Design the sequence.
């Protein structure tokens, strides 16, 4: 695997580390992103370990990443049903891309964020002090997708084909390299076409490329809604990359440990309820993001595909939120081969399970 191919990812990570260092020295001036959602609706009832009805709630700034969408339904539901407030929390949602979010989490400007192994491992190896505290996506959501009519059914079938990508960076690019490697291929064995506007789905549908990288709960869902049969190639059985989960800065974990544990428990409670009845998650997302109402059928399909990613083998065995430690260890080893681990890190440094609720 050529380290040159992975260098854009490393540049992004190094830039994130630079942003983090600058943020830590400027006292936070100008670094706090704008609010994308209102503070939580309240309930004064207390639960064990909460601040209690008479205590002031603990404020938590939560960075969800990307843009407000149905993919964050569990957070919206927990907010709207007062689960966060019941736990003594005042939750404020913000939306930022990984490049901005991870340094802000590391410096404590954002208390809780979302990140996956391919972003957390390089960031931590570049001295951004963050830890992964709960799994949201038990299955890695980045995929390669193609029209079923293309004849592509395995990674081997990608040889010589045109593959659309947003660019040679990020989780999708790392996933593609690992997928190709499973068939003894590299990115030199395929034709890479870049779609920086993230319109690779249209390129697949129009036949400009044979396949493309994307997310299992995005492009394939849209294509199937358009009546196109889709083949999906996943990485889970090849290289178990940790999917997106909740992350926090190490200093925040020291000062707000119980509050973050309460946030995790409330969020997992909402995930269980949505898993049992997706309609409650869809309705909560529409309340939070009203424009989704005009695409209810499509949003329901996206949510269904999202719910399907919440539980992999480790979560099936241990419950939603459980962390795949073996997957983290293997991912550290793999990312090291791509020159994305600047300084050695271990699974014990990167993940902590003591904020997960006790299982019966």
Sequence:
């Amino acid at each position: 695997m050529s380290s040159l191919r992975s260098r854009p990812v490393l540049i992004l990570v190094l830039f994130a580390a630079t942003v983090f260092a600058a943020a830590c020295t400027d006292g936070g001036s100008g670094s706090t992103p704008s609010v994308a959602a209102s503070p939580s609706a309240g309930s004064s009832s207390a639960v064990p370990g909460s601040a209690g009805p008479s205590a002031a709630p603990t404020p938590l700034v939560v960075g969800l990443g990307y843009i407000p969408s149905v993919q964050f339904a569990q957070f919206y539901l927990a907010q709207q049903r007062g689960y966060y407030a019941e736990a003594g929390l005042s939750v404020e949602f913000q939306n930022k891309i990984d490049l901005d979010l991870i340094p802000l989490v590391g410096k404590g400007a954002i208390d809780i964020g979302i990140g996956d192994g391919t972003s957390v491992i390089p960031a931590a190896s570049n001295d951004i002090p963050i830890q992964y505290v709960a799994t949201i996506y038990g299955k890695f959501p980045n995929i390669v997708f193609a029209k079923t009519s293309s004849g592509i059914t395995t990674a081997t079938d990608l040889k010589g084909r045109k593959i659309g990508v947003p660019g040679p960076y990020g989780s999708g690019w790392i996933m593609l390299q690992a997928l190709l490697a499973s068939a003894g291929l590299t990115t030199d064995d395929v034709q890479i076409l870049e779609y920086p506007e993230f319109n690779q789905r249209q390129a697949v549908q129009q036949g400009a490329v044979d396949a493309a990288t994307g997310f299992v709960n995005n492009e394939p869902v849209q294509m199937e809604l358009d009546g196109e049969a889709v083949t999906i190639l996943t990485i889970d059985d090849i290289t178990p990359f940790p999917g997106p989960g909740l992350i926090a800065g190490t200093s925040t974990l020291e000062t707000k440990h119980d509050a973050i544990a309460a946030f995790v428990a409330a969020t997992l409670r909402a995930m269980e309820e949505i898993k049992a009845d997706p309609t409650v998650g869809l309705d909560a997302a529409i309340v939070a993001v009203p424009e989704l109402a005009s695409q209810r059928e499509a949003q329901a399909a996206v949510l269904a595909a999202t719910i399907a990613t919440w539980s992999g083998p480790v979560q099936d065995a241990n419950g939603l939120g459980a962390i795949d430690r073996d997957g983290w260890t293997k991912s550290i080893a793999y990312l090291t081969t791509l020159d994305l681990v600047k300084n050695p890190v271990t699974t014990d440094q990167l993940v902590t399970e003591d904020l997960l609720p006790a299982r019966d």
